[in-house]
Amino acid sequence: MLEELLAGSLDDARARMERRPLRQVEADALARPAALDALEALAPAERIRVIAEVKRASPSRGELAEIAEPQSLAAQYEAGGASAVSVLTEERRFKGSLDDLEAVRKAVSIPVLRKDFIGDEYQVLEARAAGADLVLLIVAALPQDRLERLYELIRQLGMTPLVEAHSADEVARAVDLGSELIGVNARDLRTFELDRELFGRVADQIPAGVIRVAESAVLDVADVQRYREAGADAVLVGEALVTGDPIATLGSFLSV
Ligand SMILES: O=P(O)(O)OC[C@@H](O)[C@@H](O)c1c[nH]c2ccccc12
Question: Which pathway does the UniProt entry assign to this protein (predicted)?
Fold first, then answer.
């Protein structure tokens, strides 16, 4: 499944590149005001931080919510105390787009993450051209040399890579990169199975000073509490926010 998702995102990017050549996207990326400092926005604090996700659907959970105006949802996330907004830009299975990201970027003043299956430079440039401050890199989807190249490009463009792992080995690869922001996804993107204990098992492998993010299946306050106790600096939450009252849900998560 992960291979299929990555191939789909890369195909869609190639189709966009026919209309908007790399050099043009690069010029747009470089013309943007500087990216926001996501490491500062997500720095460990007394309270857990929330990265709130704009998510309409997913292959594992199906349709989640009609989100006609991603910018209004994101504004609610900011008002509710989120530290950053994640925007799914994958079109086929998550029903997102780069237009969603651009609209969100205009509506909030906290950092915005491009959440997609990133495999080439064009997608990274597009992210910056649309105003992203952070870009997700999924360790399981990329060989180490490609991971390193994309990681460096994200940094050169002034953005912050969020490096996502789903095993002890993948956490080791994320640490080897020198990553300052590491996400542990409870969901296996190959099988879609959940492992809620994974974060607790690998958290100690992440060096002090690196920001630790627990991702996926954070549905209630007890999940947030469990991750906080296991050492999470932040949680990345989609479903619970798009299917409920975002402000009230954020409030309860932030009171942990
Ligand atoms: O909706 P949830 O279970 O709260 O999950 C959010 C986020 O962690 C999830 O969307 C996600 C994490 N890593 C990904 C990689 C690709 C696509 C999606 C994801």
Answer: Amino-acid biosynthesis; L-tryptophan biosynthesis; L-tryptophan from chorismate: step 4/5
Q: Are 101 and 67 in contact (CB under 8 A)?
A: no
Q: Please list every protein residue whose CB sits less than 6 Å from any atom of ligand 1.
A: 53, 55, 115, 138, 164, 185, 215-218, 236-240
Report the CATH number that the domain containing residue 138 is assigned in CATH: 3.20.20.70
Q: Is 66 a catalytic residue?
A: no
Q: Would the pTM of this model clear 0.90, i.e. be above it?
A: yes
DSSP labels, 6-65: HHHHHHHHHHHHHHS-HHHHHHHHHHSPPPP-HHHHT---SSPEEEEEE-SEETTTEE--
Q: State in Å: Cα 62 to ligand 1 middle.
A: 13
In the chain, the number of structural domains is: 1
Q: What is the per-residue pLDDT across 139-157, written as a single tens digit (0 to 9) for each?
A: 999 999 999 999 999 999 9
Question: What is the distance between the alpha carbons of residues 154 and 134, in angstroms, rounded to a whole number?
Answer: 8
Alpha helix locations (H) across 32-133? Answer: 38-41, 70-79, 98-107, 121-129
Predicted pLDDT of residue 151: 98
Integer Cα distance of 182 and 185 in angstroms:
10
Interface confidence, given as ipTM, is 0.98
Q: Distance between CA 54 and CA 85 in Å, rounded? A: 7
What is the domain extent for residue 236? Answer: 2-254
Q: How confident is the model at residue 163 (pLDDT cuts 50, 70, 90)?
A: very high
